[in-house]
Design goal:
Blueprint: H1 4-18, H2 22-25, H3 29-55, E1 68-73, H4 80-97, E2 102-106, E3 109-114, H5 121-129, H6 139-143
Antiparallel strand pairs: 1-3, 2-3
Helix pairs in contact: 4-5
C-alpha cells in the first residue's frame, strides 16, 4: 500500500508545528489605513446621498407646498341646518387626514381650504367629502344556485 497519506499528514503537521511567520499574523499599518480609508469613503457617500435626498423635491418644506381650495355646491335647496351639519361632519372627517384644513359655509356652497397641504391632499378631501351610501345586497339569492 502507498504511504501517500502518511506523507501528506507529516507535511501538514510540519507546517502547523512550524507556525506562520509573525509578519503575516499581524496586520500592518498599511492594512489599517486601507480599512480606515474604506470606512471614510462609505461615510462620505452616505452623507452625500442623505444631503441630496433632503434637498430634493421629494421632501418640500411646508412653505413650498401648494394650497388646496375646493368648492362644493349642494344639489337642490337644502336647509341651513342640514348644510351646517354637513360642514361639521366634513370637519370631523378632515381633521385627522388633512390637518389645518378649514371648512366653511358660504350660502349654498361649502368651501374647503388647506394651506401648505401635503401631496395628495386634494384627492383625500374629494374622497372624504363624497356622501356616504348604504346598500344591501342579498348574497344568498345570487350565490346559491336555484
Amino acid at each position: 500500500m502507498s504511504d501517500y497519506f502518511e506523507r501528506v499528514e507529516r507535511q501538514i503537521v510540519h507546517r502547523v508545528e512550524g507556525g506562520i511567520p509573525r509578519s503575516s499574523r499581524l496586520p500592518s499599518a498599511g492594512g489599517y489605513l486601507a480599512v480606515v480609508a474604506a470606512v471614510l469613503v462609505v461615510i462620505v457617500v452616505a452623507g452625500v446621498i442623505l444631503l441630496a435626498r433632503g434637498a430634493g423635491a421629494g421632501n418640500p418644506s411646508p412653505a413650498a407646498r401648494p394650497a388646496v381650495r375646493l368648492v362644493f355646491t349642494a344639489p337642490g335647496s337644502p336647509s341651513p341646518t342640514a348644510l351646517e351639519h354637513t360642514v361639521q361632519i366634513l370637519r370631523l372627517r378632515l381633521r385627522s387626514v388633512v390637518p389645518g384644513a378649514q371648512v366653511s359655509l358660504a350660502g349654498q356652497r361649502i368651501l374647503v381650504q388647506a394651506r401648505s397641504a401635503p401631496p395628495g391632499a386634494r384627492s383625500e378631501i374629494l374622497i372624504l367629502a363624497a356622501p356616504g351610501q348604504l346598500a344591501f345586497y342579498d348574497w344568498e339569492a345570487d350565490a346559491i344556485a336555484p
